[in-house]
Amino acid sequence: MDDLLSRTRAAVWHPCTQMKQLEAVPPLAVARGEGAWLIDTDGRRYLDAISSWWVNLFGHCNPRINAAIADQLGKIEHVMLAGATHAPVVELSERLGKLTGLGHAFYGSDGASATEIALKMSAHYWRNHGHPEKNGFVSLQNGYHGETVGALSVTDIPLFKATYEPLLRPTVRVPTPDARLAESGESAEAYALRCADALEAHLAEHAATTAAFIIEPLVQGAAGMAMYHPVYLARARELCDRYGVHLIADEIAVGFGRTGTLFAFEQAFLPSPSGRGAGGEDAVGEGTAGAGGGNGSRRFREIPPEAIEFARKLRHEQTDAESRLWHLLRDRRLGGHKFRRQHPMPPYTLDFYCDEAGLVVELDGGQHAESARDARRDAWLAQQGLRVLRFWNDQVLQETESVLSVIWAALHDGARPHPQPLSARPHPRPLSPGERGENAQAGFRPDFICLSKGLTGGYLPLSAVLTTDAVYEAFYGDATARGFLHSHSYTGNPLACRAALAVLDIFEHDNVIAANRVKAIEFTRILDEVAAHRRVRHFRHLGMIWAFDVADAQPGFATRFHRAALAQGVFIRPIGATVYAMPPYVVDADAMRTLADALLGCLADPAI
Ligand SMILES: *Cc1c(COP(=O)(O)O)cnc(C)c1O
């Protein structure tokens, strides 16, 4: 082992490391991996509590991913993707397209290259539409999007950025909705809305020279697992629509189930129009923001105004119906049954949920393509033992009493009620294909999603940028230069694509998102004592991420904590004063107890 350490110091320039410190803090010499564990050259085991820099999902040496790669090795290891194609990259693109709703996949090798691709594609899109001046980028304060020169321009971590400032393109930072920065007495949601106002103020003035807003949805990882309220995403989507700016979701860290849904962006929801600060005593996600009238909006040039109007109307109806029903459910009490609104039940968010009755009430806006998804969703809810009632928005608005009586009956007679299924009713207003396209665009979907890290389960470098038909079509034409002439040698590597396909198979076959939900509850309980520790501030949890700040951390805290935890069999690397765990999903309760004990041990040592 000592031999390996001196050789690594001599020959390997380690990432994100002051090499001189390697003398004092030798790297862990890893010989093997097994599930959530790393095994060093002396045979000692360490829990990989941060999934090898957030990439690993299903453990080291996962037999299913190993088998997929081995199978591919016997076929073709790599072929260039310009002028050639292969089944793994086609299948992966199709599947990612279905999962994200963004049907065009461009590949790179790392997260940072995905950021570069999204930025270039966005600016090039506007150029192809005759707006070369729309080439600026907006990003969040404390955001992280990678460290190549373009990606670093939209990153805002001074330690990584300041030195290279002269090389970078100036970009605009808007305030982070990081819930820790809320004023005392201000909710995370109210603070997120306040930050969204700052974004709006910027876009209102600078949209004409702005190509895109890039954001890490729900969690700013490198900022120290800063978490924020999902209403910010919904508002960002609205504002980007209104001002004609692309929204780039950098899901490199949060994609693939980290936040409790396959993609974090799925958790965006529209706030109710009931007015900022309206109290929702007992309800999760009681909305507070104005839904934002569409006045003065600038529009994507290629979208017909009627389609925009239609999408807006649909959204407003949805909002009206939702808040109408919400007030009725609260006011009438329906025999004392309490409903929660926008109740998160990953992978879904339920419109209305009554816990004691196991009843879900969902509203539908008549959104075409949703029916297959609804069926999947209803089947999943039924599997959880929940009953689902669905109503159209305009039923709620126009036949309110009968809707309430169906809900009342469902709550009281226990027998399964049979409201007329949606499929048996005439569709309130069939959509034309043009409307369908626009509606999808206006929905809570980013214009670009960047994926990497978990994409291959932590096996091989691969990244993907997925985008809309509208973006794709802007590049399609006879002129070569109108196309996206970007490439990396290993674009769409078949081995990496096979690893990614195996990862998607595991998600599907093992129902990972639902299983994680149950695990996360247990794991959070295991960390209760840590959360309650007197040195711990802002203990936070989302999906498979747990984080807290240490109140009295002194300079050098992260290194001391790392070393002390290592001595207790846990590989963890705090960011500044923030300690976080982001374990592979295969971690079990025993391993989480090892983690909790190590964390408590470190916290108990006043010298750390
Ligand atoms: C890690 C990360 C990147 C960069 O990915 P690399 O593969 O390290 O280049 C970009 N964005 C986010 C949000 C990340 O967490």
How does the SSE layout of this entry go?
Elements: H1 2-11, E1 30-34, E2 37-40, E3 45-48, H2 51-54, H3 63-73, H4 87-100, E4 104-108, H5 111-128, E5 136-140, H6 149-153, H7 158-161, E6 172-174, H8 188-206, E7 210-215, E8 219-220, E9 226-227, H9 231-243, E10 246-250, H10 305-332, E11 340-345, E12 348-354, E13 359-364, H11 370-383, E14 387-392, H12 393-398, H13 400-412, H14 433-442, E15 448-451, E16 463-467, H15 469-475, H16 494-509, H17 512-526, H18 528-531, E17 536-542, E18 545-550, H19 557-567, E19 570-571, E20 578-581, H20 589-604
Parallel strand pairs: 3-19, 5-6, 5-7, 7-10, 10-15, 13-14
Antiparallel strand pairs: 1-2, 2-3, 4-16, 8-9, 11-12, 12-13, 15-16, 17-18, 18-20
Helix pairs in contact: 3-16, 4-16, 8-9, 10-14, 17-20
The structure holds pyridoxal-5'-phosphate.
